[in-house]
Amino acid sequence: MPYSILIAIACLVPRSLALQPTPADMPQVPGAVPVVLRVATFNIEDVRTDDLKNAAHPRLRRLAEVIQRIRPNIILLNEIAYDMPGSPGWSQGDGQGQNGQRFADTFLSVAQASDVTPIKYKAYMAPSNTGLFSGLDLDHDGKVTATYPAPPSAKSDGTAGEQSKGGIAFAGDCWGFGTFPGQYAMALLVDERLTIDTDRVRTFQNLPWDYMPGAMFPLKPDATDWHPPAVRAVVRLSSKSHWDVPVKLPNGAELHMLCSHPTPPVFDGPEKRNARRNHDEIRFWRDYVANEPYIVDDQGLVGGLIMGKDGPRLNVTLPFVVLGDLNADPKKGDSMDSPMKLLFASRHLNSQVTPASDVAVEGLEATDTASFRLRVDYVLPSKSLKVLASGIWRQKPAGESKFPSDHFPVWMEIEVPGN
After folding, report:
1. Cα 159 versus chain centre, distance
2. Angle at CA 121, nearest 5°, toward 6 and 324?
3. How far apart are CA 267 and CA 273, in angstroms?
4. 60, 89, 246, 273: which sits with the fewest CB atoms below 10 Å from its CB?
């Protein structure tokens, strides 16, 4: 859908504020006025710290141009490295978790084509389990691999080099698959006029998988547990992390962005450790919005979405959006026991709107969000939010022969009631 039409759609709703990127001195709006937001998710395919430090990086410039044309107020980026000590490209004095803001400042705040305008964002990042060494033989290859080789150089088109055997061996013994610390992490970017309530962010990086009742733990061919009891007690549910990031809007409302990137349900063996983990990583969000009591965040707070950090909220489910590359298609692919159908069945979730693309790509259905012919990327709002429009962006930047990622951005226009 052309950008001009998107703007028109966003402005059709009477007595509401269409919060498209405009000058930062936009006044606050009365609490009773709903706000219209464009929310998006985009797997940008293995972007690394060294890439982000190169302002002329051609693929990152094309990724930024795509985002500048969609112009989301909130966007989750999957597969952007979490920069930290020990990871490639990190330099002493850099701090850590800066890559989200680095992408926003270096690429999105600069016009990447003559007919687009820059966007200023604030970024949130938190540590990821990917490439985080566990000290255990999680892949059952008979050894614990504690070191990783330098990642191969990028290809000529700017995409990451192929994984090495040494990198794969290291990744197999990490809490989440990553050939180096912080690979395949996440960043949430929000319009500079919005506020991330950092004091009330909840992360679930460390939640033991065993806490989930009826967890689908991997099994050996003889149906015994893949993990011995001592390992099963500590292995983590999340392959990256799960985040609940509250975002304050100009009308006083607060929207909870529920962000994750479950492991692909493939690249394993008959034990199906990835397929089973993918299922339960997706199931987590159904349990979270239902306030299941097994849930404990990294700060020790027990309970799901209706709890918050201020105690019980009298059974009120707060407005939310489930966001990210969930690596599961509701109708096809290799996922186990239909985790998307399980999530869609949540009484708190609006799964009736299915984004589609009006740009035909050979071999893809209109609802496929990735070049590998699956719908895996989602923007799923709570039932308290009104959906005005949605889509999948497949337009290639002018002059480019291919799209700059193996995934396409998914966007949705939603109306958030006043506080």
Report:
1. 19
2. 70
3. 9
4. 89
Bridge partners (DSSP) listed for residue 416? 35
CA atoms of 161 and 159, how far apart (whole Å) = 7
CA dihedral 163, 164, 169, 174 (to 10 degrees): -40
Report the alpha-carbon distance of residue 74 to residue 219 in Å, rounded: 39
Average pLDDT over residues 377-406: 96
Alpha-carbon distance of 78 to 405, in angstroms, equals: 11
What letter would DSSP give residue 319?
A: P
Q: What letter represents residue 157's amino acid? A: D
The closest of 413, 416, 417, 415 to 6, measured between CA atoms, is 413
Please, what's the b/e burial string for 129-163 (b: 16 or more CB within 10 A of its CB; e: otherwise)? bbbbbbebebbeeeeebeebeebeebeeebbbeee
Tens digit of pLDDT for each residue in 217-240? 999 999 999 999 999 999 999 999
pTM: 0.92
- What distance in Å separates the CA atoms of residue 31 and residue 20, rounded to the nearest whole number? 18
